[in-house]
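Give me the fold.
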Amino acid sequence: MQESSTKLIRDGELIAFDADCIAPFGYFIDFSRTWLCADQVRGVSSFNPQKLQKQRDLHKYAQEQLAYNMEICKPGMSFRELSEKCWKIPDRFLPYRYGVMAHGNGMNGEYPYIYHNVDYAAGGYDGILEENMTLSFEAFMAEDEDDGVKLEEHCLITKSGVENLSCMVPFCEYLEQ
């Protein structure tokens, strides 16, 4: 959850990318992926298998959160209802959660901001999800400051639910094993 720097990424470390791309004619797409720096994962004795398992678990939870929240989202749902029904973040991840469970898209991330159920009372507001809205569903999983996984999907709200517009961007193969 920081901007890029001059730090060299080493074997076994994670790197996250949040697209926030504005293309020609103002089209905006917003998705995130986290990758493992794994040049030498296979057969290198210095690679920490416990750390890799932790990173894979974080990735699994982030994917689970996205899939669940995208699955329950339907046009006509209120922001409050979506917030109340959203994936319940396990306590150990709460201190590091992403600020919103989903946000709208226009020329940038914008209305609506749909808050996690634990944050709705402090910052949430009501509105209704409508067909043809685009939402980016967010997930950030971390239980300490050593590792964190950020994933995000850019979606269209359709008559029957959610169409994932960023599904062509694969997840990290090393983290999905």
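DSSP finds three helices and nine strands in the chain.
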